[in-house]
Specification:
Length: 159
Amino acid sequence: MKTKGRFNIIDFFIIIAVLGCIIGVVLRYDLTNTSVLNSSRDEVEISFFINGVRIGSTEAMVEGDIFYWKANGMEIGKLLSKEVSNREVFVFDGEYNYVKRYHAFQYDVRGVILSKGILDDDGFKLKGTQFLAPGKTFEIQSKNITVYITITDIKKINA
């Protein structure tokens, strides 16, 4: 028995659906490439603060090391500088007044990381996707250390 191939409305919709999928994939690929190319257009300095770490941790933060966001593995940037100081603590004296003292074994670290991303009116987006702003605390790591930092400032480097 011989059957003839017929083109009907269902075949038409299947062809349209397949073409739509192909066009969608091409457009998504193009948008992804465009956002990745534009994601590193601004060079910024991310200033941060680390509260109360041991001296060994301060020594493990080596200027020039690359730091990564521990939660997602995304590269944040290169440590430009660090400043280590004794951790300040406030205690009550015998007359119920606060008195500033320095902790014997803990240190505070202030530093700057050179990073790239998009800086606009909405804020800074690391690699164009991850929003960072002053006040955000998160865990970073390098080849020598893993530590929590709090961002204190993000400023664009004049090109």
